[in-house]
Amino acid sequence: MILKDKKIVLGVTGAISAYKALELARLLVKQEASVRPVMTRSAIEFITPLSLSTLAGNPVYTDLFEPAGNGAIGHIELAQRSDLIMIAPATANFIGKVASGIADDLLTTVISAASAPVLIAPSMNTKMWENPITRANVERLKKLGYLFAGPEEGPLACGYEGVGRLAAVDVILDAAQEALSPRDLAGEKVLVTAGPTREAIDPVRFVSNASSGKMGYALAKAARRRGAEVVLISGPSYLPRPSGIAFVPVTSAEEMHEACVRYYPQSTLVIMSAAVADYRPKKSYPAKVKKDAVELTIEMVRTNDVLKYMGRKKKDHFLVGFALETEDLEENARKKLIDKNLDLVVGNTPAGLDSESNQVTIITRDNTIEVLPPLGKDEVADRILDKVARLKE
Ligand code: CTP
Q: Is the per-residue pLDDT at 71 higher than 60?
């Protein structure tokens, strides 16, 4: 809940994608941010201030010369009392004005007086995006510390196909969260594992478990947001690949082990959230097993314990393991912490598997225990990383 209680100016300029700002406002409010919408004159040609103010739960500001009083906030106050200024969509004209220091309406004036980070989500025709003047304006703003989300490639409203589409709303939201996140993992090289593994019986059957990968993906994204360089080694999962993260897909426990061995030496922090199979069929049949016999016995053999291996090889690494328990959670989790030479262990139960939320207990090497309430996995990820960042200080 990084956006909770944050004061966010949502600037909307005149592009056909302005309607997506309505969804953005709704999602920001859902995350309990306080949204102050500002629209340019041309934005009002595309969507109504009434729609935006209804979804934002606050009046829309449009006029630089709005009289003071009536609860109206002046442009300097809007600029100074904000934690983040987002412009979505931002036109080529608007980007050009900001890059040239022009402040001739409320939104450009707010930006010129702001101390908060400014996040720009461009939206325009491909030719306009590729125009050398736009390119130079964007580069100049990036150098000055302005943040950008998108644009994306795809079909455009004007009939063209190419780069220029407003970034997806969740990509803009991720960028907003990143802008407001602590950078307390900057310089860390983080290896995160996620998801289940599949141990083949034959070409069409396998032994696996109910892990979805959500916890690991949330951890990888949160670590990146907080400034780390992240490698995500993932077993089979239907989740979209997170952007800005090196992604290594694997299938079996053996492949997971090999990938971890490869990335472990250069990592400073390892978070092993994958549900790695402990056993695999001794023999994987090369052809589909036919149902000839009445009974079928599959002999299983142990896989490598990847985390235990890393615990043995540990140098300066900070190792985080998970412990999935159905009974005696604290005691069993602590045993795993010692046995696998971990710095921190996150105990949880099968209720967290393939679920949007998780209820975890965080146990550290110096034996502090923190029992968290059931929380969304993004929040759990940040709470785990809060602890890791404090211990690594
Ligand atoms: N783990 C691993 N390699 C395995 C099995 C587990 O690296 N072959 C890691 C998991 O990713 C997790 C931790 O070890 O971080 C504990 O996994 P868990 O399934 O809770 O326990 P196990 O060690 O497998 O022991 P048990 O199944 O007996 O509880």
A: no
How far is the centre of ligand 1, averaged over its atoms, from the C-alpha of 35 (Å)?
A: 43
What pLDDT, in 10s, does the model give residues 45-60? Answer: 999 999 999 999 999 9
Task: For ligand 1, say whether the CB of 305 is within 6 Å of any of its atoms.
Answer: yes
Q: How far is the CA of 360 from the centre of ligand 1 (A)?
A: 16
In whole angstroms, give the CA distance from residue 148 to residue 129: 13
Among 316, 384, 307, CA closest to 338: 307
Q: What is the pLDDT of residue 86?
A: 98
| CATH 3.40.50.1950 placement within the chain | 7-179
CA of 334 from ligand 1 middle (Å) equals 13
CB-ligand 1 contact for 303 (6 Å cutoff): yes
CATH 3.40.50.10300 in the chain, residues?
Answer: 189-392
Indicate which residue's Cα is closest to atom 17 of ligand 1.
323
Nearest atom in ligand 1 to the alpha carbon of residue 339 is 23
pLDDT in tens, 252-305: 999 999 999 999 999 999 999 999 999 999 999 999 999 988 899 999 999 999
Instruction: Report CA torsion sign: 165, 168, 173, 179.
Output: negative
Q: Give the pTM.
A: 0.87
158 among known catalytic residues:
yes
CATH topology for the 7-179 domain = Rossmann fold (3.40.50)
Segment 158-184 mean pLDDT = 91
| Closest residue by Cα to residue 320 from 248, 204, 222 | 222
| Ligand 1 pocket test target in 305, 325, 331 with most atoms within 8 Å of CB | 305
**pLDDT of res. 362:** 97
| Segments in the chain forming alpha helices (H) | 19-30, 49-56, 75-80, 92-99, 106-112, 126-130, 132-143, 169-180, 214-225, 253-263, 306-312, 329-339, 377-392
Pair 91, 151: CB distance under 8 Å: no
pLDDT of residue 355: 85
CATH superfamily of 189-392: CoaB-like (3.40.50.10300)
